[in-house]
Amino acid sequence: MRNITCILLLLLSIVSCSKNDNEIQQTPTESMYYPSNTSASWETKSLSSLGWNQNAVQPLKDYLNQKGTKSFMILVNGRIVMEEYFNGHTATATWEWNSAGKTLVASTVGIAQQENLLNINNKVSDYLGTEWTSMPLNKENLITVKHLLTMTAGNDDTKQYVIKSNLTYIADAGTRWAYSNIFQKLTDVVNKASNKPFETYFNEKLKSKIGMEGFWNFGTIFTIYHSNTKSMARFGLLALNKGKWNNEQIINESYFNESVSTSQSINPSYGYLWWLNGKTSFMIPNEQTVYQGFLVPNAPADMYAAMGAKDQRIYVIPSKKMAVIRMGDASDPVNPNFAVSGFDNELWGKINAVIN
């Protein structure tokens, strides 16, 4: 009788374990969603389904409105959780990315490299010819494409109008980090390497692949991309997935990982035209000061971000499968040209109240 009881208990245990195992296996894992390239439809997800704090949403929206925001979006697993427009801005209206668009340039350079049109470790003069700067030739020849991607070309960063006479020598390439418009020469490198205008190549290889809308403005001083908010969000989603869109790896994953990793030892918080959180120190534009701590203390440590003047932002947080978009006027009109600002930390304080 004792043996029969033991056998029954063993069978019940096996059945119970099997049932629990099946329940675990059947627990659905939400897939990554990509909006259609040919439709305006975009799946949404409710805050309540994520367990977020609905009571903190209105304070976040009030803050955004007070700070000159025109649009704000949060994506989780590609689905829209928040989509807000302020001050008469609409879903179809275009706005400037400012320096956040540098990440589009870095991505396009990566695509050109994976197509064997260029190598970022090669000298810039291999593509543009010699004497593209006013530096001594031996100093110009030190500058690689990678130095342009990492803001370490060694040029005089006080001269932001990118013409030959302004590209003068301050330090050997790779020895000094300084935020500069010299990155614009990357568009010329892609042009020469691909034998196509930069915008044509960008449209073919990136924009059309992910269904973006928008256009480049190659101004006298600045090179700026303009788009609607959802197009910016599409690029944020591509970045969240390390260059992959649906089943196509548009940007080589190895190159993308390099882009969002510390690219040099001078400013650990800078990749290939991407800003990086969670590092030991950071530098900011127009200064040579090294600040200790995280770039945005309130934000997740694994965040990388596209940052442009007047607080144009794409925040990407892999650990939360999240991308956050902000477009608008400067949060601080007195200081509109700061690529990194106190606004980021204040905003993340408000976001944290919603998502935590």
Per-chain topology:
Elements: H1 2-26, H2 47-50, H3 57-66, E1 69-76, E2 79-85, E3 95-96, H4 102-114, H5 125-128, H6 137-140, H7 145-150, H8 185-194, H9 198-210, E4 215-218, E5 223-227, H10 229-240, E6 244-245, E7 248-249, H11 253-259, E8 275-276, E9 281-282, E10 291-292, E11 304-308, E12 312-317, E13 322-328, H12 342-355
Antiparallel strand pairs: 1-2, 1-13, 3-5, 4-5, 6-7, 8-11, 9-10, 11-12, 12-13
Please name the defining characteristics of this protein:
globular; 3-stranded antiparallel beta sheet; single chain; disordered N terminus; alpha+beta; 6-stranded antiparallel beta sheet; about 350 residues
Write a short abstract of this structure.
With 356 residues, this protein is α+β, with helices and mostly antiparallel strands.
Protein described:
By secondary structure, this protein is an alpha+beta fold. It contains twelve helices and 13 strands. The protein has a six-stranded antiparallel β-sheet, with helices on both faces. It has a three-stranded antiparallel β-sheet with strand order 3-5-4. A hairpin with a 2-residue loop joins β1 (69-76) and β2 (79-85). The radius of gyration is 24 Å and the shape is globular. The N and C termini lie far apart (55 Å). The model is unreliable at 1-28 (pLDDT under 50).
